[in-house]
Amino acid sequence: MRTRVAHFVGAAAMAAGLLAAVPSNATAEPAAAGAEARYEGQRINLREEGWRGAHTCVVTTPQDIDCYGKGSEADAALGYDRSADAKALPACARGWLCLYEHVNGGGRRLIFNDEYWHDLNEYGFANKASSWRNRQSRGDTGGLKMGNGQQIWIGAPEYSSNLGGYNDRARWVHG
Asked: How does pLDDT run across 162-173, given as a tens digit for each residue?
């Protein structure tokens, strides 16, 4: 049985009231489970089986994940009206934090909205995020933690079209 040790990250997080335990074994091999999601009437393991053609996966909780073949299907399920949002920015429903596989909000999209550190490897998305948009309430800061322990905070409401030196390096996300 592997022992997990947690530590508190960042004085800034404490000041913001975001005390969250993050696994300290950032380079250790992942657990065997993988996130189970609903997609086209079936259960799929996102880490073990891949996304099977899904474009967007919505993580309501680590045990409640729905994937959709088109981003517009996920948007509709979340009640997101694209016409009421800034067209210049990639689609992301109010109240959610969206990660995108490519710069400028391109490629697959993985969406979160809870105050929990998620291991992106479980979702088949470790080292794949290249841009993000946080549409949670003002001040509801999210975070990305890299495998080497570096961390960046994701303000709300904000958008980053390119993670620059952090591109394809995120291992955990805090929704």
From this structure: 999 999 999 999
